[in-house]
């Protein structure tokens, strides 16, 4: 298990003097993974710890609180993925107005050297930090020379079409329901986690009991019906079909967004468990039916299509094997 550090008093001495990868890393997508791999390789070569320094909440949320960010990987999920990529610890630096006012030099001396005792920093080519973004790559390189740590700047990562992989591209794909494109950019299937909640039990009465999860209101995934993989808290994986939306057939207009997952060939109690849903394919959009019989007929079609889709998928990467399939390649 990767260690999550939210207070530097929790940062143990055996983690100091390591290689530190710095960034928001929202989504931990293929571009991020190029940076992160350089850090873990350097740490392994030097025989020191690999640490990821991230910022919580997302800086954009602090500066524009009226426009909350659609987070691809909230802090717990991001830390879990970073752990799978070989990091020993994830430092979740509190990002607020006071922190944003610290100078670039204070960030270097106070956090990188003072708190982390950094040996080697790895970050993206366009990383800026400190008040007014005064700390640029050239500043960081010069600071490394003065303070005795190495700096590696990783160039932008492009996909097979020579387009830069970014969190904003992934958000846009998900907003259009294109979970396949999002997976190609992430390097693993897009996933969400949450507690399984009690609902109205309508699905149970129709023969389709569902595990219900309330996602953050800023989640911008396009509503619809999806073929999914469902990971229980104990790590077991189940196939299923999920509805994300406002249930127009049975709820009034304006109902809250809800993720409802029907697990195939499964009957155990899931209430209270924190589970993860990985989105494999979007089957169709959300529809309003003229009664429950019509709804159930369509649900049977959705189940058959989801079973067919899920019966022929394979891991996209070793990370996807772990996240979506529960295996390690």
Could you provide a short overview of the structure?
The chain is α/β, with parallel strands linked by helices.
Helix and strand pattern: EEHEHHEHHEHEHHEHEEEEEHH
CATH superfamily caption of the largest domain: HUPs
Low-pLDDT sequence parts: none
Largest sheet: 6 strands, parallel
CATH class of the largest domain: Alpha Beta
What can you see in these coordinates?
With about 325 residues, the chain is α/β, with parallel strands linked by helices. It folds into two domains: about 10-155, HUPs (Rossmann fold); about 180-325, Riboflavin kinase-like (Elongation Factor Tu (Ef-tu), domain 3). It is built from eleven helices and twelve strands. It has helices at about 30-45, 60-65, 75-85, 95-100, 105-115, 135-145, 165-175, 180-185, 200-205, 290-310, 320-325, and strands spanning about 5, 20, 50-55, 90-95, 120-125, 150-155, 190-195, 210-215, 225-230, 235-245, 260-265, 275-285. The strands form two sheets. A six-stranded parallel β-sheet has the order 1-4-3-2-5-6, sandwiched between helices. The chain has a six-stranded antiparallel β-sheet with strand order 7-12-9-10-11-8. Strand 9 and strand 10 (about 235-245) form a beta hairpin. The longest helix has 19 residues, at about 290-310.
Q: What's the helix and strand layout?
A:
Layout: E1 3-5, E2 19-22, H1 30-46, E3 50-56, H2 59-63, H3 75-84, E4 89-94, H4 97-100, H5 104-115, E5 120-124, H6 137-147, E6 150-154, H7 167-175, H8 179-186, E7 191-195, H9 202-205, E8 211-213, E9 224-231, E10 237-245, E11 258-263, E12 274-284, H10 292-310, H11 318-325
Parallel strand pairs: 1-4, 2-3, 2-5, 3-4, 5-6
Antiparallel strand pairs: 7-12, 8-11, 9-10, 9-12, 10-11
Helix pairs in contact: 5-6, 7-8
């Amino acid at each position: 298990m990767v260690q999550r550090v939210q207070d530097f008093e929790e940062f143990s001495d055996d983690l100091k003097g390591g290689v530190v990868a710095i960034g928001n890393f929202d989504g931990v997508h293929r571009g991020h993974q190029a940076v992160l791999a350089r850090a873990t390789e350097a740490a392994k070569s030097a025989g020191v710890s690999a640490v990821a320094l991230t910022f919580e909440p997302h800086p954009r949320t602090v500066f524009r609180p009226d426009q909350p960010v659609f987070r691809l990987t909230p802090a717990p999920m991001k830390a879990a993925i970073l752990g799978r990529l070989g990091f020993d610890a994830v430092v979740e630096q509190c990002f607020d107005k006071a922190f944003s006012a610290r100078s670039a030099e204070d960030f270097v001396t106070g956090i990188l050297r003072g708190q982390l005792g950094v040996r080697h920093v790895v970050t993206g080519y366009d990383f800026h930090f400190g008040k007014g973004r005064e700390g640029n790559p050239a500043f960081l390189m010069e600071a490394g020379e003065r303070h005795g740590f190495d700096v590696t700047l990783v160039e932008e990562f492009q996909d097979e079409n020579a387009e830069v992989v970014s969190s904003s591209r992934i958000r846009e794909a998900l907003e259009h329901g294109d979970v396949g494109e999002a997976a190609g950019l992430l390097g693993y299937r897009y996933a969400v986690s949450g507690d399984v909640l009690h609902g109205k039990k309508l699905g149970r009465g129709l023969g389709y009991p569902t595990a219900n999860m309330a996602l953050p209101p800023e989640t911008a995934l396009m509503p619809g019906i999806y073929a999914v993989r469902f990971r229980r808290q104990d790590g077991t994986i189940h196939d299923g079909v999920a509805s994300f939306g406002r249930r127009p057939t049975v709820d009034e207009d304006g109902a809250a967004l809800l993720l409802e997952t029907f697990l195939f060939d499964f009957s155990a109690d899931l209430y209270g468990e924190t589970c993860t849903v990985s989105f494999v394919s979007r089957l169709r959009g959300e529809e309003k039916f003229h009664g429950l019989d019509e709804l159930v007929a369509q649900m049977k079609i959705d189940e058959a299509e989801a079973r067919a889709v899920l019966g022929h998928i394979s891991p996209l990467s070793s990370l996807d094997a772990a996240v979506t399939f529960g295996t390690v390649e």
